[in-house]
Amino acid sequence: LLGIEPLHPLEITEILDLADTYAESARAGERPHRPLQGLTQVNMFFENSTRTQASFEIAGKRLGADVMSMAMQTSSVKKGETLIDTAMTLNAMRPDLLVVRHPQSGAVDLLAQKVDCAVLNAGDGRHEHPTQALLDALTIRREKGRLHRLTIAICGDIAHSRVARSNLILLGKMENRVRLVGPPTLMPAGVADLGVEVTDDMEEGLRDADVVMMLRLQRERMDGAFIPSEREYYHRFGLDAAKLTHAKPDAIVMHPGPMNRGVEIDGTLADDINRSVIQEQVEMGVAVRMAAMELLARNRAG
Ligand code: CP
Question: Which DSSP symbol is given to 148?
Fold first, then answer.
């Protein structure tokens, strides 16, 4: 699972359907059967993570896998070992599933060409974060009762966001209307060719939206690019209750996390359980990662 791009809408639906059953059984306090029993899952995070790393680890353990999370900070990467040599070394230990996050776009695809096991992209640079888009899709489907013909505003730092990119692809495949909202300096090159509406006006971007998805300002990827002052950014692009009035009255508020409260979103709104589904997104992360790993293992078993 290297990205959303190669997935057919039916494959997306298959993952979401299985994830939904896992989400429901977790809420009912039921323990799932253990389809990954006897399989080894290795997590390699070359970039910081809370939600993705923890949920992949919990997902693997719930399904019975033997899970090892590499401590990359104390690995031989620090002695200069390359990504490919690290991956081939671990591959020789015969893992079944490799979960990889890396700061370079394309690094996970490259690694996948060098190993024999299933590889799951846990976020590569500004390229893709497929399981994030899948958990966002499951959250939307559960909240709105469908995953098509919705108006979805994705707001903020689009240029540096793999979350925006994977969501844009997935939501487009499922025939939704997607709007990108943010300052022109934080829009990717060639945005006009993406076939979506683009605006730097929050009122226009949020008008009649069913879903408002806020993004973090990714300062770690901005090397040299224009970085707005946080105060000015919040004034124009930060989501608060006043700006949200332009969306539909039942619009949901999403954020992939980690959040900068008072920069891209008002803290009170982020915690408002009547509008914000941010904690449900985290909950769906475990279910989606369980489903993705089970389906990959099943396909490989033949
Ligand atoms: N949404 C997300 O990828 O969060 P983490 O960086 O904490 O994994």
Answer: S
Q: Which residues are catalytic?
A: 51-52, 79, 101, 129
Report d(CA 195, CA 247) in Å as an integer: 22
- Complex ipTM above 0.90? yes
Kindly give the number of the ligand 1 atom that is closest to the alpha carbon of 256. Answer: 1
Ligand 1 atom nearest 50 alpha carbon:
7
The per-residue pLDDT string of the chain (302 residues; one tens digit each, 9 = 90 and over) reads 999 999 999 999 999 999 999 999 999 999 888 999 999 999 999 999 999 999 999 999 999 999 999 888 888 999 999 999 999 999 999 999 999 999 999 999 999 999 999 999 999 999 999 999 999 999 999 999 999 999 999 999 999 999 999 999 999 999 999 999 999 999 998 887 888 999 999 999 999 999 999 999 988 778 666 666 889 999 999 999 999 999 999 999 999 999 999 999 999 999 999 999 999 999 999 999 999 999 999 998 87
Whole-angstrom distance, CA of residue 153 vs CA of residue 243: 12
Strands laid side by side in the 211-214 sheet: 197-199, 177-181, 151-155, 211-214, 252-254
**Does the beta carbon of 267 sit less than 6 angstroms from any atom of ligand 1?**
no
Q: How far is the CA of 163 from the centre of ligand 1 (A)?
A: 10
Distance between Cα 302 and ligand 1 center (Å)? 32
Binding residues: 51-52, 79, 101, 129, 132, 162, 216, 257-258
User: Which ligand 1 atom lies nearest to the CA of residue 123?
Assistant: 3
Peptide bond preceding 258: is omega within 30 degrees of 0, i.e. cis?
A: yes
**Ligand 1 pocket, 131 CB below 6 A?**
no
